[in-house]
Design goal:
The chain is of the alpha+beta class and 327 residues long. The chain has a single domain, classed as Class II aldolase/adducin N-terminal domain (L-fuculose-1-phosphate Aldolase, 3-Layer(aba) Sandwich), CATH 3.40.225.10. The protein is 51% helix and 10% strand. The protein is built from 13 helices and eight strands. Strands 4-3-2-1-5-8-7-6 form an eight-stranded mixed beta sheet, sandwiched between helices. A hairpin with a 4-residue loop joins strand 1 and strand 2. The longest helix is centred in the last third of the chain and has 26 residues. The chain is elongated, with a radius of gyration of 26 Å. The structure holds zinc ion. Zinc ion (ZN) binds next to loops. The site of zinc ion has 7 residues, from loops.
Length: 327
């Protein structure tokens, strides 16, 4: 008989626990090991539970679909580009490093905290998450971010040319004046910091000698901005070949577009802006979370409590019948 077997037999001989005692031990173990307490579930405080909640699973599928779109439109090359979504005040879901966005699966995604620590997910996450986190920390309205390398917009970023404005209504309403950063090494804090002062008033930024980054309220909308800026840059290149001097939309008509844009709640450097305040950031994140339909949120405390009771009952039953057999 080895040590383990000897311990087990000693335990059997000294223990004849009541069902209530077994049940309380099982309940405590389930709560401690699985971290599934109803209180934590209701508060979405458990990152593992959050990561596998229906709401976040839906966002993961949206990221996967968007990855395919980016690859099909040739906005990402090799393993380039990355996508993220802010799923709570403290956590962001993001794409992994070294994987084509055309081959992305939901299980490849990771959950990281605002300090760039990977909390859930098996694959190492993108090093360019620093750029995303910088924007989330600066802009409360940013709930999703895409970084990619669409050829026409990236060509402008490489040439150091900010595309002329006031030429196409779509561009004015959804994006507006485009910002351009100086080059910084991708994946570094310096690259992340390069967008710090720009992100609040620009939902689309050209990254010098690199690509673009777009933020929006959803992953799908951030991808729309990538499409709009790249098509705009392409249209400009073609239009200039037809006529070097391009006629801009008149100021009064631009004012109409800006009024529409303001109604839609989109940012624009031409609007008078207030400084971002930390309490506003928190309030905006809370607004976002409270706007998620309740059926998409993790199971309510009540449902989780019933599920916990059922699980504890099942495990207790098995322990009791095991002890009965061993008597
Ligand atoms: Zn890049």
């Amino acid at each position: 008989m080895n040590n383990c077997e000897s311990n087990v037999s000693q335990c059997k001989s000294v223990l004849s626990p009541s069902r209530a005692l077994i049940e309380s031990i099982v309940r405590r173990s389930v709560l401690e090991c699985a971290g599934q307490s109803a209180r934590l579930a209701a508060a979405s405080g458990d990152p593992l539970e959050l990561f596998h909640s229906p709401a976040v699973e839906a966002i993961k599928e949206e990221i996967v679909r968007t990855g395919r779109k980016l690859w099909q439109r040739q906005y990402v090359d090799g393993n380039g580009g990355n996508i993220s979504a802010r799923v709570s005040r403290d956590y962001v879901v993001c794409t992994p490093t070294l994987l084509s966005k055309g081959d992305l699966q939901a299980e490849d995604l990771a959950l990281v905290d605002m300090n760039n620590q990977r909390i859930c997910g098996d694959r190492p996450h993108t090093s360019e998450i620093l750029l995303h986190l910088e924007i989330y920390k600066t802009v409360p309205q940013a709930k999703a971010i895409i970084h990619c390398h669409p050829p026409y917009a990236t060509a402008h970023a490489v040439a150091g040319v900010v595309p002329q404005g006031n030429l196409v209504p779509e561009e004015e309403v959804f994006i507006g004046p485009v910002a351009l950063t100086p080059y910084e090494t991708p994946g570094t804090q310096a690259c992340a910091h390069s967008v710090h002062a720009l992100a609040k008033n620009h939902n689309t930024i050209l990254l010098g000698n690199h690509g673009i980054v777009c933020w929006a309220d959803t992953v799908t909308h951030a991808e729309w901005y990538a499409e709009i800026i790249d098509t705009y840059c392409k249209t400009l290149l073609i239009a200039r070949q037809l006529r070097p001097e391009l006629k801009e939309i008149s100021p009064d008509k631009i004012a109409d577009l800006l009024a529409l844009k303001k109604k839609m709640g989109l940012p624009d450097a031409r609007f008078a802006t207030e400084a971002a305040e930390p309490d506003k950031l928190e309030a905006a994140v809370d607004d976002y979370l409270s706007a998620v339909p309740t059926e998409q949120l993790p199971e309510s405390g009540k449902q989780n409590s019933a599920e916990l009771d059922r699980l504890v009952g099942l495990v207790t039953e098995q322990v009791v019948s095991y002890l009965e057999k061993e008597k």
